[in-house]
Write a structure and sequence with these properties.
Strand content: 15-25%
Helix content: 25-40%
CATH topology of the largest domain: TIM Barrel
Largest sheet: 8 strands, parallel, barrel
Order of helices and strands: EEEHEHHEHEHHEHHEHEEEEEEEEHHHE
Number of strands: 17
């Protein structure tokens, strides 16, 4: 048993180490941090007495994921429940944000309503199964793409933890991950940086059962295991004693015409601007981290780009990633000699291994696979890129205004094989748009046509869901688990 630490609750002084840590190191020009930009939105943000931010006002520029913070679950029924009265009216509006930004994923953050709530749902296979079934039902109902697990914290005696929590959390994550893989959902785990709490997360065993870790880096140093709260009076807008959100800070700076000083050593309680965000970005790149996590979106002036720490070129690259993600969610590759499903569009034919589904076997000489996209998708103008000639390797990739909808080592054109000797080619579409959503149909139709059109949209949505295995395979094959730091 480790001794209790000081109030800072960092690493105990008498805990021995095995020597210097081998930290990962990457070039300062690396792009791994561009893979994910995750923002959280708290459900009470629209009810503040001033500087309220409605969901529809959010600046989504630079985001790949947005998390709904948070849902609780009942420790007896294991059904998800709202954290506050305002949350119920927000859920459908939240997932509708995807209409504004193709490729954006909407996730739900799940926390325990009571102490020991997570201990209860994780301690038996039956409880885990019941909880997961409720999760999937909730996500299907509202159209979420993934879930962020926020267990604060296993085993911790000040949180009502139990000794078996550490092992049970691995089992819970395993069961969630496996169930979500079948449904096409993502799963992330939020971690504390404070050793006092982190010691009870079995990271080695958890790693295979999550798509990434979100790291609460406000706990990275001993002195900041307590979030920087001065315990002064309550500000007018955020209504939390001792805390000013970023928007309130900039309002004060502008109102009082204050002169700003950048302290590179950060010796004082501080806030972020473009300079410090760039410093944080450089650190993330140097440590090969997989993205950025922002707590919280509604604490920022919505006229200011969230991606202020990204260059215009990086923002353009990130936007292309979103479009690619949208394409891969609605397109799929058939087995050899299978046709596209009824109503789906056959975009191309191939013989070899699809790059995103590389475990599929190769076709025989006279067989082909069909690359299919869901009915309602706008393909635009498409062509294969990267084939350099017979007997040569391929160099895939699309132009800046194109969406990469699939890759392959072969394609069939006019009954002739074009096969790569190494590498892959890319199927690139300019003007690609995913199918119209059920919600979009609902807004655009009237009266008697509504029921018929909605029924058709539901049928279409079921077809798209059935094809979500493609996105799951992509995530498993191409996105190794990364640690994403907290920015806030």
């Amino acid at each position: 048993m480790l001794p209790k630490c000081s109030a800072a609750r960092g690493l105990p002084k008498d805990v021995t180490t095995t020597g210097p840590l081998k930290r990962p190191s990457c070039s300062k020009y690396g792009t791994s941090v561009n893979k994910r930009s995750i923002g959280y939105y708290e459900t009470w943000a629209s009810t503040r007495p001033c500087s309220a931010v409605a969901l529809e006002q959010l600046n989504l520029q630079g985001l790949t994921h947005i998390n709904f913070a948070s849902m609780f679950f009942e420790p007896d029924t294991f059904e998800l429940t709202h954290m506050d009265r305002n949350a119920g009216s927000l859920i459908s509006r939240f997932t509708k944000l995807k209409e504004r930004k193709p490729g954006l994923e909407t996730w739900v953050s799940v926390a325990g309503k009571y102490q020991q709530a997570f201990s209860i749902i994780s301690n038996t296979a039956a409880n885990r199964r019941k909880f997961i079934n409720n999760l999937i039902k909730f996500m299907q109902t509202y159209g979420f793409d993934g879930m962020d697990m926020d267990w604060e914290y296993p085993i911790a005696d000040d949180r009502g933890g139990k000794p078996e929590d550490k092992a049970n959390f691995v089992l819970l994550s395993r069961d969630i991950y496996n169930a979500f893989e079948k449904e096409g959902y993502g799963y992330s785990l939020t971690l504390p940086a404070s050793y006092w709490y982190l010691q009870h997360f079995d990271l080695t065993k958890l790693q295979p059962y999550g798509h990434w870790f979100n790291l609460m880096s406000s706990f990275l140093r001993d002195m900041s295991t307590y979030v920087a709260i001065t315990f002064t009076s309550m500000p007018r807008c955020s209504r939390v004693s001792g805390i000013l959100n970023l928007q309130e800070i900039f309002d004060i700076i502008n109102d009082k015409k204050l002169k700003l000083t950048h302290d590179k050593k950060a010796g004082w309680v501080s806030y972020d601007d473009d300079k410090t965000l760039m410093q944080k970005r450089e650190f993330r790149v140097s440590r090969c981290l997989g993205g950025m996590m922002i707590w919280a979106l509604h604490q920022i002036d919505q006229d200011t780009p969230i991606g202020g720490s990204l260059s215009p070129e990086e923002m353009e690259e990130t936007e292309a990633i979103y479009q690619d993600a949208a394409a891969k969610g609605v397109c799929y590759t058939s087995m050899y000699d299978d046709k596209c499903r009824n109503g789906d569009y056959e975009a191309a034919q191939m013989r070899e291994q699809p790059g995103f589904l590389s475990t599929m076997s190769r076709c025989s000489k006279h067989q082909v696979r069909c690359f299919c996209c869901s009915k309602g998708a706008t393909m635009g103008t498409c062509k294969w890129r990267g084939f350099r000639g017979l007997g040569l390797s391929c160099t895939g990739g699309c132009h800046g205004d194109e969406t990469e909808v699939t890759i392959n080592t072969n394609y069939v054109e006019k009954n002739e094989d074009q096969t790569c000797i190494g590498g892959t080619k890319s199927y690139c579409c300019s003007g690609f748009k995913p199918p119209i959503s059920r919600e979009q149909v609902s807004e655009k139709i009237k009266d008697e046509a509504a029921d018929l059109a909605l029924a058709a949209a539901e049928t279409l949505a079921m077809g798209i869901a059935a094809k979500a295995f493609c996105r799951v395979a992509i995530m498993a094959e191409t996105l190794p688990l990364r640690i994403i730091p907290f920015v806030g």
